[in-house]
Amino acid sequence: MSAFDDLMKFTRETEALGAIMGRLNWDQETMMPRGAAEQRGEEFAALETVLHARKTDVRIGGWLEQIDVKAMDEVSRAQLRHIRRSYERNTKVPARLAAELAKVTSVAQGIWAEARARDDFAHFAPTFKEVVRLRREEAAALKEGTDYDLWDALHQDYEPGSTGAQLDAMFGALRPRLVALRDKIMGADQPKGLSGTYDEDKQMALTEGLAAAFGYDFAYGRIDKAVHPFSSGSGLDVRITTRTNPEDPLNSIYSTIHETGHACYEQNISRDYLLTPLGEGVSMGVHESQSRIYENQLGRSRAFTEYLYGQMRETFGEIGVNSAEDFYAAVNRLTPGYIRTESDEVQYNLHVLLRFDLERQIISGSLDIDDLPEAWDSRFEADFGVKVDKVSNGCLQDVHWPVGLFGYFPTYSLGNVYAGCLHKALRAEVSDLDAQLAKGDTSAATGWLKNNLQQFGGLREPRDTIVHACGFEPSEAPLLDYLEEKFAGIYGF
């Protein structure tokens, strides 16, 4: 066998072990007994030790040296790019630190959940300080030999090639128009919302049908309940979760459509890339572009909500609004709220920008952990005009920081920007899109996304993936133009 063949065989085995670890994460969120958290932490640490040893195996370096990259085809060069990046990253991080991070963040998740339920930040603060300490140590190792700061070094795990400075510029252009649009909407008459109580079993049945309508293949996936909806897995085993609320069926519906976007990206990647570095989404920003365009530009469109209104009436009967147009307005109405995952399209990015700024301060050390609740509450009131009532609605609402995912949050807004670009390109190529969506037929839209983006997995770098799909360089302008036109139509200004 050639050095490339040896390297790919070894890499496939590592990818398979990583998939097993992903399944343990899924189990922890959905079915694991609460009392198993400490043992699960040990399991994660043991498996992470094995994975880290494989990812830093000296044979990888030897194989990479032997391979003539210039003689490789495009796919093989892309595989090598990912493998080399992973090898260089992991050889910077001591095995002891990798195992400790896996253990501590696993245990931290359970302590965070307890603290959130008790609205007691002090209960979580000591553990959180340990998570931050370890991630800072990891960041210091990763930034060696680069021009990155600590936060940038962590951010590369989620959006390779992106930096805090670049995001600052993009988010700086987003914020003024978003705030102006939000203020204009909040000064207008608000549409009526849904009313009534919605059977949770019927919600699950409806959401399963919607996932299928958006192309989710249940032969290779399943839907379960979790506190925080998420998608897990790749290739032939891609699972999603949702949550139900008898007072708010839209939460379940749009959480499911959102996670279906993630899942369909993974399911639609070429099978030729299965259990290789190309066999999963290329970055979290690109991944989020799929979930957000499914959820918002498609799922919350006037056309699709016309179809969904009929499904809602058929499933639940009276829902408190009496026309498809009123339902469209109810689905898209703006309301003040604390929770990022329940936020509307206009305010969502303001939630993310808040987190982006605070986590950079946390990692740099300019914001002390004990001062985080006060810093959060002050920034939230300044951005949203509302005082935070409790920490479960504030800095304890998200699981990302407790499990050490620093550098992750801005990919949500980057995904929204990418989705705006993809939607513009999609509309230019599918002229009768609204007529199809009004019938509940998403196949032209999801097919376009599969053919132009999803099937390629990690073949191209994140930004190049969007350029290839859209035919133009990404910017925030298409997203802002879309939001201003859409909400001006709903609110009549």
UniProtKB/TrEMBL annotation:
The active site is at E259 (proton donor/acceptor). The keyword Hydrolase applies. Its cofactor is Zn(2+). It catalyses: Release of a C-terminal amino acid with broad specificity, except for -Pro. PROSITE patterns: PEPTIDASE_M32 (PS52034). GO terms for molecular function: metal ion binding; metallocarboxypeptidase activity. It comes from the Bacteria. Zn(2+) binds at H258, H262, E288. Keywords: Carboxypeptidase, Hydrolase, Metal-binding, Metalloprotease, Protease, Zinc. Binds 1 zinc ion per subunit. This is Metal-dependent carboxypeptidase.
